[in-house]
Design goal:
Length: 418
């Protein structure tokens, strides 16, 4: 899979555009193309690894997908590239190669095939086995059969008006779904750092999300139109986090095009979307381009966290916060309350770690160019500084935080220098 992805070439202008965090047609195209190629390679690996006894059924599922693709390639592409499909594919491949543990869920490929066939509008007949009395059809929703056992499906099996059908909730203003149904919308408990998605929401919960999402998009469109367009283009689903989640948002490399987020007021949700979309962009870039050769040892200071971070985590955090600093600067210019303070604080955090990032000895040539362009984007914010001494005060506050962190982690003080 890695060899195929390294066939991608990233031009210097595209690399620098991505490094600035500012949306560009070339950067968006690269991110989407990388995601699609990676997903197809992953699905191919799942098919190749399927045990001999399962290949007949797996082949039937794949044949239905191919038949649907002949009628409506876009519908099939959307099903196969839906974020939760990536989580399923990675988990399935991991289980297929594991010597013990739970069996791989190869039957879910049938759910993908049926969803694609239904969306393509082709005549078909396919039998699947619901799990716990429900059958999830990715991008569509779920079916609740009235009797246990295998379920025979055909082109008339999906009726949004049928009480046994629960459609996936579509958020207003675009193609983004609010996914509280797909069993693979978040990693399972076997993952090293499980993320707990919310259970199926009530109609009141859906309405609340509609309001918050619409409000967040309105703010993005008002303050940063191009970034609003990028968000809609790169975000296919939002997965609500369970109540009590400490994080306001998260992304999963396996679920490209998805953001996990807790319900929050529109200004906070808009910032979360800006932040998390950047993580997805950088993940796609590093799938095809090596920016550094450092290991995963946590040793670096990151002003937005209390725990030491590996170099990759520091780079990701600085990149996402650089975009946030730009977003809050634009919001401040439109008069958003508190935006200058947010901009000054976040920019000071990014400026505090960029020197260490740019000087790191394990950066590749591409990594040096990338972090240099990040530095240029941060310095360009001087053209529109906050009023008064807010920027200076924010830098002093970050320096105090750096000293406190070094006192708490004296053995890592060398990794906290600016």
């Amino acid at each position: 899979m890695t060899d195929a992805l390294t066939a991608f070439t990233v031009s210097s202008p595209t690399l620098r555009a991505l490094a600035s965090t500012e949306p560009s047609p070339e950067g968006t195209r690269l991110v989407r193309d990388v995601r699609r190629s990676k997903r197809l390679l992953l699905l191919r690996a799942v098919l190749d690894a399927a045990p001999g006894g399962d290949r007949g059924e797996t082949a039937d599922h794949w044949a239905l997908l191919e038949e649907a693709e002949r009628r409506d390639p876009d519908a099939v592409r959307d099903v196969l590239h839906y974020p939760a499909t990536g989580v399923w594919a990675e988990e399935t491949l991991r289980r297929l190669h594991a010597p013990c543990g739970p069996p791989a869920d190869l039957g879910h490929l049938g759910a993908l095939a049926v969803a694609a066939a239904l969306r393509a509008g082709i005549p078909f007949s396919h039998t699947l086995r619901p799990l716990h009395g429900r059958l999830v059809l990715p991008t569509l929703g779920l079916l609740r059969p009235d009797r246990p056992g295998p379920l025979a499906l055909c082109e008339r099996s999906w009726d949004p008006d049928d009480p046994a059908t629960v459609p996936l909730h579509a958020l207003p203003g675009g193609r983004t779904a609010l996914d509280d149904l797909d069993p693979y919308r978040a990693p399972g408990p076997a993952q090293p750092a499980p993320i707990r998605p919310a259970r199926r929401l009530t109609p009141k919960g859906h309405k609340r999300w509609d309001t918050q999402w619409s409000g967040a998009l309105t703010l993005l469109q008002r303050y940063d139109t191009i970034r609003a367009e990028e968000t809609v283009q790169l975000l296919r689903s939002v997965v609500p986090l369970a109540g009590g989640s400490r994080s306001s948002g998260a992304t999963l490399p396996a679920a490209a095009g998805s953001v996990l987020a807790r319900a929050q007021a529109p200004p906070a949700l808009a910032a979360t979307l800006v932040h998390e979309v950047q993580h997805g962009k950088l993940t796609a870039l590093t799938d095809v381009l090596t920016l550094h050769t450092a290991d995963h040892t946590p040793r670096h200071w990151a002003p937005w966290r209390s725990d030491p971070r590996p170099l990759d985590g520091l780079l990701h955090g600085a990149y996402a916060h650089l975009a946030l600093a730009g977003y809050w600067q634009r919001a401040a210019l439109y008069g958003a309350r508190g935006a200058w303070a947010q901009h000054a604080r976040i920019r000071a955090q990014v400026a505090a770690v960029l020197p260490a990032l740019r000087a790191h000895e394990l950066l590749t040539t591409a990594g040096k160019e990338f972090t240099d362009a990040m530095g240029a984007a941060e310095r360009a914010m001087d053209d529109l500084p906050p009023p008064g001494d807010q920027h200076t005060a924010a830098r002093r506050a970050v320096d105090r935080e750096r000293r406190a962190w070094c006192e708490a982690h004296p053995e890592l003080a060398a990794f906290a220098q600016g």
